[in-house]
Structure formats: structure tokens, C-alpha cells
Amino acid sequence: MVIGCAAFPDREAALGGRVMGYGSPDRAWRAGMGVFGVAVAAVMAGVVGASGAAAWADEPETTEGLIVSASRTPVAAKDLGRSVSVLTGEDLRERGVRYVSDALRQLPGVAVSRAGGPGGVTQVRLRGAEANHVLVLIDGVAVSSPASGEYDFAGLVASDIERIEVLRGPQSALWGSNATAGVISIVTRRGTRNQSGGEVSLDGGSDGTFGGSVAMGAGTEDLDAALSLAGLRAGGLDVSADPGGDIDRDRNITLNGKINYDASDWLRFGATARMADRRSDYDGFAFGAPKRSDLVYDGDYATDQRDVAVSGHVDVDSLGGRLSHQARFDYTRVDIQTLLDGLSTAKSLGQRFKGTYQTTLALDAPTLTSANHRLTAAVDWQRETFRNTDADLVSDPSQVEGQQRDLYGLVAEYRGTLFQDLDLQAALRHDINDSFADSTTFSTSASYEVRPTQSRLHASVGTGVTNPTFYEQFGFIPSQFIGNANLDPEKNFGWDAGIEQRILGDQLTLDATYFHETLTDEIVTVYKAPSYLGTAVNENGDSRRQGIELTLTARPTEALTLTGNYTWTDAYDPDDKIEVRRPRHRATLAADYRFLDNRAGVNAEVVYAAGNYDFDYRAASMGSARLRLDDYALLNLGGRYKVTEAVEVYGRIENALDTQYADLDGYATQGVTGYFGLRARF
Fold it and tell me: Which UniProt keywords apply (predicted)?
């Protein structure tokens, strides 16, 4: 999707949609979050009192080694024919990563662009696609903005996260719209049965940055619960790079809760709730500036944003465990407000309601856990609403009436294992939309293990769709951008094939994958005479993307782990222009060394990007041309030391060589920064 000012890095600010809703709905979700938090805390207090203190529990055994986003039911990574990368919470904490987007930079097929420093709008693209072609799930809940269809990673901190899965390639047959190029699934911490404990961390460093978090988990034989609170204040930098300009700061608070209860061996309940509240300063953008250095100018702009994601589910096993049922409800809310000189300039509220019923049958065994062949059927219902209210309706009348749209999805999936070494997966989905064309998507994949050579062949093929956004469908400011009710969903066809090779057991693992994708009906903005107002249309022609992903993991000793990856991305639009903000070459190399009986560790990573382009917004081009940004390599260093079994100190230096670089033209980025922290478990 490219929509008028959408090329502008701060997509929603440019369109006037950066959020904050007020009134009775705001009070309602505040009360709901408060009740949920109190309930989880009360449950944990009782559990701790009953079970006594124990170590904080990490990833539960039920999900270890399984990929939850690659199928409607969890699937073992070794049986998966799709391309996937996994980061664990332990990986993030050992490296001292504070923002999830910084961790995603280390993965193949991923391109991250941030508008300046911490708090700047952060987009994540997979395999050369657009940011709104990536479905982002947190504990299974879609968290993208209903207005723009994409998720801003600027506010996603890493403190309470236990697992990140990045599934590359079209996945709409499983998950519907926006999974056009892949899925990023994030799982937060949960308690472990019959254990209780917690963790507290504090850190601070360069640019007045300060952060802290507290997390608690507890469980009995049939219940587990977790609650976490994290705060991060980044002193920031002047992203305009004007001499004597104002510092652009970021403040972030995240509350997360999770609870699971087994009423019996066949009946289970679960619920999650998450709230992230942040304020980010940003500077203005001057389209048509004479020089690149004048594009971003100093200004007292700010965004208040609050994201809420809530889910509840009930699971029922029948036929002695051969047939499972799940009913689930998800709710997402995104409130944004933009301010100039402390005065509100725009407010918007986007909401998503989703209900799902799913059933899975073991075809060849008495239980699902022992089955080699499984069939899943699901029905999804989703309603999205959006309302935008401008503070000055006279001089800049924006669209104030609320908009709503519904869709229904019908899903069927088969998973099977043949001859022990061949794993197959196939899915088919039909989406019924009330506002635009219906769509049908499919996906298939295969994984074959060649035991004599310790090789694994994997391949997948599928289609994806991305529905028009509210902005594209209904418009925004009538004097600037008009909606198009006749838009069709964007469509993607993609396939990949590769080989994974293990050498000396698990001491060395290599993987090479080629991918190819073709996007049709891409939604772009055009300016038609005589008014030259912007509007969205489906562009003729194909947008082509292809590339190679190489990964390496080596463990030459028990103390040393080496990882590396390289991605070549070749992405062009229908006019044969190179796609922006997708480096043609990306590579990372990382090393982690443990010593003193694993009580201490150091790590280093190099991130390299080359062949990255952005729009040229200077007067001569006004965004019609591209310009190449400088290639760069960043060095990050980290270390940790356990003072006791319960207390650990850690530190991290980012951009240790003080490299000057840019993800987006005109935006200054941070030089060398460092911080030091302490983490204690109880």
C-alpha cells in the first residue's frame, strides 16, 4: 500500500490519524483493564501463598519447540515446510535488547525502518513487501491499526516477551487479510504450574534513558497466571539534526496479564489483556524542501497513543481427546491523538472485534497428540470500526462519521506425516467481505528429512490478500484525499524452496532458501485532474519480489555460539521502480560467549545494510524519484554477570563505532549509546 502521504515515514501523523480517544469507552476499558489486573494479582497472591516461592518460570513446556503461528494448531519446527525464525525471551534478555524492532533487525528477510530515534514510527517489512502486508499477533490477537492496517513497532518493548516467531511467505489461508507477506507472532510470559516467582529490572544510560519492569508468575496444578508492568523513558535526540533543536523524547508504559485454568482434563479456559500507553515527540516534515537536510524541521509535535488487546478462549476435548473445539474472542483498540505546541490537532479511535470457532479431528489415532493426520475447520467473524475527529472542523474538515465493516472467514486445514520423514500441510480459506470483493486463498507446504545426510528439504506455495484500509476506502480529509469504495483487495502469490543442512549433529546448521512473490492490484495513490485531489486506486501490472535467505548457526564449543544470516532482496513496483526502505543486501553476524560456569557472558553483533532507497521529497521530485541512502554497518556489544543466582548485572553498547546512518532520508539517528542495568529474580 502506498497512500498519498503514506510515503511519509510517520504514516498516521501525515494523515492526521495519530490517536487518543476519550469519554465513556475510554473509562470502560480502563475499568476493564483494572478489574483484569486485580483479578490476576489476586489469583497469584493466593497461589504464592499456597505453593511458596520458586524460580520464575520461562517458556512453558507445552510450546517449547513448537511453532504456533504456522498452523491453526501448534506444529513442530522440524515438521514445518514454511520459512520461520524464532527468538526466545532468553535471547532478548541475554543481549540486552529493549525494543523488539532491534531484535527483528537480526533476522533474515526482515527490513526495519525507524523515523529517527526511539519513539519514531517503526515499520517492519518481510521479503520486500509493504508494512501493512505483515500480520502482527500478540498472544494471538491482531494488533495492527484498523485505520492503516499496519502495526507501529515503536512502542513494543521486549521486557515481558517470551517468544517471537517470524513466519515468511503468504499466510492468508490461515489467518486472513494482511498476512500477505507473513506473520510476526509474539508470545508474552506466562506462569508455570506448581511454581511461583518474579523478576525486577532497572537500567539507565545515554540520552537520559531510564527503564524498569516487574513481572510475576504463579501456578498450581490446574492454574497459571502472570502479570507484568514495564516502563521506558528515552531522552531521545533531535531527529531534525538542526543546531540547537529540541530533543524528541519517548515515554512508554506497558501492562500485560495472562491467566489459564484447567477446569478438568477436557475443559480449559484462558484470557489475556495488554495495554501499552506512550507519548512520542516528533518533528515536522517539509515536502518539497530545496535540500535533503531541510526535509525534517524542528517542531513541537507529539503523539499520544494507547493500544489495548484483550482475548478470551475456552477449549473443549471430546471423543476421548480425538476431537477438540475452541471458541475465542479478541478485541483490539487503538487510540491516537496528535498535538502541536501542546494543543490537540487530531484524534481517532480504531477498534477490531473478532470471534472464532475452531475444531480439529484426529483422522488416524484415538488422540490428537498421537495422530499423524489432522483436519481442522474454523469460522472467523470480524468487525472493524474507525472514527476520526479533527479538532478544527472548519478550516480542515475531516471525516467525523464512524465507519464499520464486517467480514467472515471459512477455513479448512490438513496436516499429515507420511513415511515418518515427509510432513505435509495444506489450507484453504474463503473470506466474505461486506464492503469489497470476496477472496479465496490457499497455501501448501512440505518438509522432507533426508536422514543419511542430515538434510531437510522444505518448500511452500500460497496466496495472500490485504484488504483496503479505512483511509483508502473511506478517505480522510476531503480537501486532500478522497476514498475509493470500489477498491479490490491486494493479492499476492508466492513460493519458496530451500534446504537445511546439519553438520556434526547440531554443531553447525545451514539453511538456504529462495523466494519469489508477485503482488497484483497494488493499492497506490494518484492525483487526477482537474482537482488533483489524492485518491486510492488498484494499479495495473505486477509488483515483483524475489530473493535469497541464508542462515548459519554454529556451536563450536558449549560456551560459544555463532549466528549469521544474509538476505538478498530484489523488489520492484509495476512501473519497474525499485521499492523503498528495503535494503537490497542485509547481513548480520553475532557471537555469544559464556564463561565462569555460565555466570558471565559477552556478545557482539554486526548489522550491515546496503542498497537501501527512499523517496526523494525535494522540490524537483516531490517523491516521484528515488535516491540511494548510504550503506552502513553497526556494531553492538553486550555483557552480563550473575552476582548471585538471583541477581544479574548487564550492559549494552549500541552503534559502538558511532556510525552515521539513516533508515529514512532526512531523519537523524542515534550515535553511540550505552546503558547499564540490574535484574533480580525472586
Answer: Cell outer membrane, Ion transport, Membrane, Receptor, Signal, TonB box, Transmembrane, Transmembrane beta strand, Transmembrane helix, Transport
